[in-house]
Hints:
Structural class: alpha/beta
Number of helices: 5
Oligomer: single chain
Amino acid sequence: MSKTARHIINIVSAVLLTAVLTAGYISGVSCRAPLKCTGLNVVIKDSSANRFVTKADIERFLNREYGEYAGKPLDSLDLTKVEKIVDSRSAVYKSEAFTTRDGKLNITVTQRTPVVRFQKSDGGFYADAEGFLFPLQSSYASRVQVIDGDIPLKANSGYKGELSDPKEKEWLMKVLNVVNYMESSKLWRDKIVQITVSDGGELSLVPRIGQEVFLFGQPDDIEDKFRKMEMYYRNIVPEKGASHYTRVSVEYEGQIVCR
Length: 259
């Protein structure tokens, strides 16, 4: 190979090597540049069951209480703060915030699942299975058992949280047991449409069909009382007729008192 040819090859090799090193440097700088937030992605995990909060609600909460996040470096976002903001919503049970390589701030939300709605003269509130109370929502009403009357809970329409009074908490959990028993029963799930509380926390159950009101008493001995209500329908109604009695008490042990 001539001296000129070797010289040309050396020049071309040097140019190619310089190009490769330059491309590598640019790529390294690009990789080291912090990713910026390109937007928000919200997933409401149980939106088919309840619609207390929406994606638009979450975005509005963040814009108002977190501030600017779009365009900020992903590693500068305070994910704990984001979760606290979302979790502060009364109908939110739990949220999880995380970022992804596409630059998105992602938030998954699980809503609270109400078991019962308490309706008092000064407003109402929901209770979930754990006894956590939270206000009614203006945007959506959950179809759950409604309890009204002289409800022995100091909570008002804006209350959020668990009850601090042990006696109130005990009564609440017993009532939730009554509602859960009804919901798990094919017989009682749709048969009882209203529960009313009288002085002292005693319950009266109103069926969908018929004039009878069942005087249930305190929310205890649940299985026995519902067994007596079933006996009433099986044995007494066929003999006396569906409209013969208006008050059926199952609150006393070993008795069904009809009036």
